């Protein structure tokens, strides 16, 4: 892979489109990218929005095989339950030396490698949707045949979507619970803050703007070099002031415990999906 790789996104919904958006914003040429989806209207939307080639209507798998055959890096972005069928479909069409990257939660490397020709390079990742704006974080775990050079190429490609870290595969359920699902928790907080603002008498539109800008602004501060969440929180919290009154109630009602319980449920769900997929193989 001396030159810029050719990419194919097999399945291009929320997550793969976010990665695609981050990569394109980083200057990757649209004419080296193909995506596949099932629905013609979704294909048209992606073509119009990104100027990439999109193949749709893959009832017989033809679109996926065509896209896979022309790619150096194939990024599989279907739901976990569809990954094995997708890999089986394209197994015979992959270009020699192609690298298969999965963004699917809970689908083990072993299961993916078993669906592909022996020796296929597979990399399992757990990205998140802020990839779209270059503020994502992706954890990756290389499969048994992935070479360090290929891992480096994928790492470098994904670095235009944000931070990239390598972890042992057995940490990916926990990673998914923190950063994979994490954007939803931040959006949930913004929704809850807006709702509470309305209950305090604010106009709904104003409350939504205040909550969204606050979560976004706090996120931007957290992204500054050396930022520390606890220190930033303390800087807002005047002794015996308003913030302290709010945090006291959050602690009395064990909000940290509620968050921990929710995140444990996310990690447990990931492990349960793995068990379901493995039992079905
Ligand atoms: N959403 C997120 O924040 C994150 C998701 N993930 C993982 O990403 C994966 C995708 O999730 P998400 O993007 O949310 O799901 P979406 O449903 O938004 O996207 C799935 C995409 O796959 C396409 N698709 C399904 N089957 C086929 C097929 N046979 N051939 C071609 N395309 C197909 C769909 O096409 P169509 O639109 O036409 O139906 C759709 O574009 C999951 O495995 C999930 O675990 C990981 C981290 C975060
Ligand atoms: O909810 C899900 O299952 C996926 C994986 C992480 C974020 N979204």
UniProtKB/TrEMBL annotation:
<dbReference type="Pfam" id="PF14748">
    <property type="entry name" value="P5CR_dimer"/>
</dbReference>
<protein>
    <recommendedName>
        <fullName>Pyrroline-5-carboxylate reductase</fullName>
        <ecNumber>1.5.1.2</ecNumber>
    </recommendedName>
</protein>
<dbReference type="InterPro" id="IPR028939">
    <property type="entry name" value="P5C_Rdtase_cat_N"/>
</dbReference>
<keyword id="KW-0028">Amino-acid biosynthesis</keyword>
<dbReference type="InterPro" id="IPR000304">
    <property type="entry name" value="Pyrroline-COOH_reductase"/>
</dbReference>
<feature type="domain" description="Pyrroline-5-carboxylate reductase catalytic N-terminal">
    <location>
        <begin position="7"/>
        <end position="105"/>
    </location>
</feature>
<keyword id="KW-0560">Oxidoreductase</keyword>
<keyword id="KW-0641">Proline biosynthesis</keyword>
<feature type="domain" description="Pyrroline-5-carboxylate reductase dimerisation">
    <location>
        <begin position="169"/>
        <end position="271"/>
    </location>
</feature>
<dbReference type="InterPro" id="IPR008927">
    <property type="entry name" value="6-PGluconate_DH-like_C_sf"/>
</dbReference>
<comment type="similarity">
    <text>Belongs to the pyrroline-5-carboxylate reductase family.</text>
</comment>
<comment type="function">
    <text>Catalyzes the reduction of 1-pyrroline-5-carboxylate (PCA) to L-proline.</text>
</comment>
<comment type="pathway">
    <text>Amino-acid biosynthesis; L-proline biosynthesis; L-proline from L-glutamate 5-semialdehyde: step 1/1.</text>
</comment>
<dbReference type="InterPro" id="IPR053790">
    <property type="entry name" value="P5CR-like_CS"/>
</dbReference>
<dbReference type="GO" id="GO:0004735">
    <property type="term" value="F:pyrroline-5-carboxylate reductase activity"/>
</dbReference>
<keyword id="KW-0963">Cytoplasm</keyword>
<keyword id="KW-0521">NADP</keyword>
<dbReference type="InterPro" id="IPR036291">
    <property type="entry name" value="NAD(P)-bd_dom_sf"/>
</dbReference>
<dbReference type="Pfam" id="PF03807">
    <property type="entry name" value="F420_oxidored"/>
</dbReference>
<dbReference type="InterPro" id="IPR029036">
    <property type="entry name" value="P5CR_dimer"/>
</dbReference>
């Amino acid at each position: 892979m001396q030159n810029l790789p050719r990419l194919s996104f097999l399945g291009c919904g929320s997550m793969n489109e976010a990665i695609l958006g981050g990569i394109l914003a980083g200057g990757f040429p649209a004419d080296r990218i193909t995506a596949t989806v099932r629905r013609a209207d979704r294909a048209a939307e992606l073509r119009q929005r990104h100027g990439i080639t999109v193949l749709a209507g893959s009832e017989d798998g033809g679109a996926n095989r065509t896209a896979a055959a022309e790619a150096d890096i194939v990024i599989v972005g279907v739901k976990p339950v569809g990954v094995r069928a997708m890999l089986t479909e394209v197994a015979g069409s992959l270009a020699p030396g192609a690298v298969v990257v999965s963004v699917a939660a809970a689908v083990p490397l072993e299961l993916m490698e078993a669906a592909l020709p022996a020796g296929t390079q597979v990399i399992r990742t757990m990205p998140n949707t802020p990839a779209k704006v270059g503020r994502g974080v992706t954890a990756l775990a290389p499969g048994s045949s992935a070479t360090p050079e290929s891992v480096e190429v994928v790492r470098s490609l994904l670095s235009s979507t944000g931070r990239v870290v390598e972890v042992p595969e057995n940490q990916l359920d926990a990673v998914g619970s923190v950063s994979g699902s994490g954007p939803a928790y931040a959006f949930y907080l913004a929704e809850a803050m807006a709702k509470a603002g309305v209950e305090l008498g604010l106009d709904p539109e104003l409350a939504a703007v205040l909550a969204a800008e606050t979560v976004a602004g706090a996120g931007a501060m957290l992204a500054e070099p050396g930022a520390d969440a606890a220190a930033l929180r303390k800087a807002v919290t005047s002794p015996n002031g308003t913030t302290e009154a709010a945090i006291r109630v959050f602690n009395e009602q064990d909000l940290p415990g509620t968050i921990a319980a929710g995140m444990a449920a996310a990690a447990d769900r990931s492990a349960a999906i793995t068990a379901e997929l493995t039992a079905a193989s």
